[in-house]
Each structure stands twice: as structure tokens, then as C-alpha cells.
Specification:
This protein has about 325 residues and is α/β, with parallel strands linked by helices. The protein contains 13 helices and 15 strands. Helix 6 runs antiparallel to helix 7 and helix 7 packs parallel to helix 13.
Length: about 325
């Protein structure tokens, strides 16, 4: 039950509508391709289909042809689709999808808690990607309407990488996916190598503050702390995103206090001013960080950038230029 409550709270944070920003597109400096080569590439793509697929929750279906109409009902999945250069194939997104900027121009089909089933059916998607298991009633309604709904919930960087490759395969963008994930793997390894010899630093990650909630050891935020050379003081938390006793947090005395800037009034100064926090080492030594939520909290292509943000907060001395 705690895991469900914590996960629900995290999703609410992820979808709070505050995630903004856009990534500039790199100029296309590649030489023109030989038409014959393009035809060969298209033949290779077509040879993949029909493609048998099983999502993260055991649902099996067959993708008959390369999808040209795609809906994403999750900000992280939308980022994956745009990274795979599928912007022209995306016909619908969730109400909270805002990265990259072009996602805002796509039709909204509701959100994870209230999918607009009629709108989804109206858009006639070849495939719909959803974060988490979804609602049994909503899943049934969509699938009964002939919609191919695939649900995924990656909880580690490696699972995010695997998902990008999986969506790349489903959408005929396997080569692009490999290029993206190769870069992610290289950056992950570079960061891990950089912090590998450093002394572990005690870290507390605040998911929410009323009540106080934290990231458990098996959450992707917990993994980011560990990979960044930190010691998660909530490693015994009862769930991935669980309530955590305030007195226990103070007693364990983290050296670094990290959270996402999920509201305008959440600042290092406002956290330092909380009752009882003044005795914590992180407060005394000015080691309180509010990180960009749409990077640190979305399990998509930028999660390795989130790892870098986490590592810089925990071991800033290793990233000084």
C-alpha cells in the first residue's frame, strides 16, 4: 500500500504542469542519401513487421506495420518518441507533456488518471504508450476498441535504456534508438567512473514534504543517489516512494539534502527554515539542492543528465573545471 501511495504522489509531482524547457535541434549536416539506400532501409524496416510485442505487464499484441499514428500518455514516453525523431507521427500526448516545446502543439488526450477514451479512439492511433499498468477499465475500453495499448514502467537507468530500444524497435527506429542509448551508456559509465573512488556522502532525497516522503533504494531516484557516490539514508524505506519519519531523517543527519524544484516557493532557503532542520549537516554546510524536476524525475532519454545533476550535487569537487 505504501508503494502505491508513494508512486501516486510521485506521478502527481511529475505531472504537476511545471516541467518546462525545450532542446534546440542540431543542424542537419549530413550529406544527401542515395535514393537506393533509402529504399533499402525502408525494406529493412518493413521486414520487421508483423512484430510480436509484450509490454512490461505481460500484455501481448502484434504490430502489423510501422506505426505512423502514435499516442503517448506520459511525459517520459513523449520525450522518448521525440528523441526517436517521431514528431511527425505523434498525434496525441498527455495534458502534462511539455518537452520538447513541440509536444505542447499536439492534441491532448487527458492524463494518467483520466484518459479521454473518446479522443484516443477519434485519433485512430496505431499504438498508444502508457506509463505504469493503467486502469483496468480504461485498458479494456481502449483494447476493446481495437487500440494497441502498451504499458511500461522503467525504474532504473538500464530499464529506461531497454525501453528506448524497445520503442525504437516497435516504431521502426531501432538504429536511432541504438545511437541514443549508446550515448546514454557512455555518459553513465563516465559519471560512475568519476565518482568511483570518492568517499560516500550521506544523502536524503525529498519526494514530498507534507507528509515527508523519500525515494527508497529500488526507485530510480534511489539508484541515481547510489550511482552518484551517495549513501541513501532511507535505504530501509518501506517502498520505492514512501513516507519517512521526520525525526529519523534528522537523527540520521544527511550531509546533502536534495529535492526537485516542484513549486516556486520550494527553495534551499525555505527548506533551511523548516522547524528542526537547523541541526542537520546539510543545512549547516549549505548543501541543500533543488534540482530541475523535468530532468531528475522523468525516466526518459535525459535521465543520464539527471544522474549528472545528482552527482554534481553530491560530489561537486569532482566536476570542477
Amino acid at each position: 500500500m505504501l508503494r502505491k501511495i508513494g508512486t501516486l504522489m510521485l506521478v502527481l509531482i511529475l505531472m504537476a504542469g511545471i516541467f518546462t524547457g525545450c532542446a534546440p535541434k542540431a543542424p542537419n549536416n549530413e550529406p544527401a542519401q542515395d535514393p537506393g539506400k533509402n529504399e533499402g532501409a525502408q525494406e529493412n524496416i518493413e521486414s520487421v513487421y508483423p512484430l510480436a510485442v509484450e509490454d512490461a505487464f505481460g500484455y501481448k499484441t502484434t504490430i502489423e506495420k510501422q506505426p505512423t499514428r502514435i499516442i503517448s500518455i506520459a511525459p517520459s514516453h513523449t520525450e522518448i518518441l521525440f528523441a526517436l525523431e517521431l514528431e511527425d507521427s505523434i498525434v496525441g500526448v498527455s495534458a502534462y507533456d511539455d518537452y520538447p516545446e513541440e509536444a505542447k502543439s499536439k492534441a491532448s488526450v487527458g492524463d494518467a488518471f483520466a484518459v479521454n477514451i473518446e479522443k484516443v479512439i477519434e485519433l485512430e492511433p496505431d499504438v498508444v504508450f502508457f506509463y505504469g499498468p493503467g486502469s483496468e477499465d480504461t485498458n479494456k475500453a481502449l483494447r476493446d476498441a481495437g487500440i494497441k495499448l502498451l504499458c511500461y514502467e522503467p525504474e532504473t537507468i538500464d530499464e529506461v535504456i531497454a525501453l528506448i530500444n524497445e520503442i525504437g524497435k516497435i516504431t521502426g527506429k531501432a538504429d536511432v534508438a541504438k545511437e541514443i542509448t549508446d550515448g546514454m551508456i557512455a555518459k553513465k559509465e563516465e559519471i560512475i567512473n568519476k565518482v568511483s573512488g570518492a568517499e560516500k556522502v550521506k544523502v536524503f532525497y525529498e519526494v514530498w514534504h507534507e507528509p515527508l516522503m523519500t525515494a527508497g533504494p529500488n526507485s530510480f531516484l534511489g539508484e541515481l543517489i547510489t550511482l552518484s557516490g551517495g549513501e541513501n539514508i532511507a535505504n530501509d524505506a518501506q517502498g520505492d516512494y514512501a513516507e519517512f519519519d521526520l525525526e529519523q531523517m534528522i537523527e540520521r543527519n544527511p550531509d546533502v539534502y536534495i529535492t526537485a524544484k516542484d513549486s516556486e516557493d520550494k527553495t534551499p532557503e525555505s527548506i533551511k527554515a523548516r522547524l528542526g532542520y537547523d541541526v542537520i549537516n546539510a543545512i549547516k554546510n549549505d548543501r541543500v539542492y533543488t534540482l530541475e524536476p523535468n530532468i531528475i524525475s522523468r525516466p526518459g532519454p535525459r535521465i543520464v543528465d539527471g544522474l549528472e545533476l545528482m552527482a554534481k550535487a553530491i560530489h561537486p569537487e569532482l566536476f570542477e573545471e
